[in-house]
Amino acid sequence: MRKVFFFMAAVCCGALLAACGGSSSSSESTTDGILGELDEYVQDFYAKSNEVAALGRLYGSDEATFEEGYKLSPGLIETFNKLMEVKDQAVGREMPTVVREGTPMKVIKPMTVMGVQILPENIKHYEPNEHYEKKLQDLEYAALLSKGILYVKLECEVELTEDIRAQKGKYSGVSIYYDHYITSFGLNSADSIISMSQERSSVRYDEAMKAGTRVKLSISVQDKNHRPYDKAPKEEYYYDNLINQITKFEIVFDANTSAALSDNGVKGELGLFELQGPVKKCTILNDWGNVVRTFDEQGFWQTHDGKKLSEVYPGGIERDEYGRIIKGLVDTEGNGEEYSYNKFGKVLKYNCHIYDSIEEDVYTYDDNGNLLKKHIEMGGMDAEEPYDETYTNVVTDEKGNWTSRKANGEVQKRKIEYYN
Question: Measured between alpha carbons, how far is 375 from 386 in angstroms, rounded to an integer?
């Protein structure tokens, strides 16, 4: 009975341990992930863990179960000890790290492995009981090890490229939440997201952050094990070996940037439409009909094809601290358009969501505020693949506004009228 008790207690308390991101079982060792060549040791440990864990469904049935456990235990303990010996070789390993287009920051130091652990923590504190035989002690220890999963801490450093506005926190219970967090996505070689970590500890989201500020981001990634408790087939005991599937990281921060109203910035809302200077009216010239927008002398958008903005957005308009539109709703159901600005007062991102019609445009500028390209992603049932719109043969007027250009080879033209 004593043997049954120890094995049952150790194996059957192996609760499912959750991991960040998706799950994808893997049994092939890889060398281009977070652990590199150490993944071979992890795969060996996981495989032998499964063999021992699978015996848990047969606990107490007969002596043969324990004999099998006695035979498997030394192998699992040996592979665990090997993994413990080499795990710190991964410390310092750097992973390719990028920021998503439109994110106002750049990478100073890529994601770097800071530490590797096996969870749960009580694995490290196992103490053999000298009052019963060694093979039973090994079996109890192996049952404990069979619950183990890998846990890796990583850290990177980024620098903000634009001023970031403070966010107003929202209380929920005893915690404060913000609309936008810095998020790190772990991607595999096919660019699929398999992990996600939000930076909540080292960043003060309730304070404004200046361009040039450097921030250290700390994240963790862990694997997941599956331990059914019924008489499931042995194949159902498996690990989602996520960690070494991650080959690179992408950092995203959908922050509200602060575009100061200064001499080298664009006035009002002209920057939403690639305009600058004392613009009174801008007409987009199309074969199927023109689009006309008018502006006041402060650069604020007044009409669209003769309609006031209150008519264009009858569901309401939201503005930032400079009075610029950041959201316009076409109805009371939340359908509409959103705008954000960069440090030059020019459009950084445009979102449109009107029923099944979804579009997000991200604008990329050079250091002098000149538009380099626009990245377009569509949504909905018939959405096309994301693409970039680039510009050639650009003709500008004396105010520096383009009047003719080619966008991916197609000619675009517009006519601009100015205040005197």
Answer: 7
Distance CA 60, CA 43 (A): 29
* φ/ψ (deg, to 5) at 115: -175, 150
290: three-class secondary structure by DSSP: coil
Query: How far is Cα 21 from Cα 165, in angstroms, rounded to an integer?
Result: 29
Q: What is the DSSP string of 196-230?
A: EEEE-SS--TTS-B-TT-EEEEEEEEE-EEE---S
- Token pair, residue 77, equals 């303990």
For residue 134, give every residue at least 6 positions away whose Cβ sits within 8 Å of its Cβ, in sequence order, or none. 128
- Asked if residue 104 has a cis previous peptide bond (ω within 30° of 0), the answer is no
Q: Return d(Cα 204, Cα 251) in angstroms, integer.
A: 17
**H-helix or E-strand containing 76?**
helix 63-86
C-alpha of 210 from chain center: 22
* DSSP for 299-316, written as a single string: S-EEEETTEEHHHH-TTE
CA angle, 248 then 251 then 255, to 5°: 170
Q: For residues 273 and 282, what is the distance between their CA atoms, to the nearest angstrom? A: 9
pLDDT per position as a tens digit, 181-200? 999 999 999 999 999 998 87
Q: Which long-range contacts (CB under 8 A, 24 or more apart) does 122-129 make?
A: 123/147, 123/148
Distance in angstroms (rounded) separating the CA atoms of residues 356 and 351: 13
Name residues whose C-beta falls within 8 Å of residue 144's C-beta, 6 or more positions apart in sequence.
10, 122, 123, 126
Tell me the per-residue pLDDT of 197-241, one tens digit each, with 9 for 90 and over. Answer: 988 778 888 888 888 899 999 999 999 888 887 667 778 888 888
Both tokens of 189, joined, read 């070689």
pLDDT of 342 reads: 85
The helix or strand, by DSSP H or E, that contains position 403, with its residue range, turns out to be strand 402-407
pTM for this prediction = 0.64
Helix, strand, coil shares, percent, the chain, to 5: 20, 35, 40
Does pLDDT of 33 surpass 50? Answer: yes
Task: Give me the residues paired with residue 388 across strands.
Answer: 375
Neighbour order of strands in the sheet with 214-222: 105-119, 149-160, 214-222
Give the other-Cβ count within 10 Å of 125's Cβ: 8
- Residue 196 CA, chain-centre distance (Å), reads 5
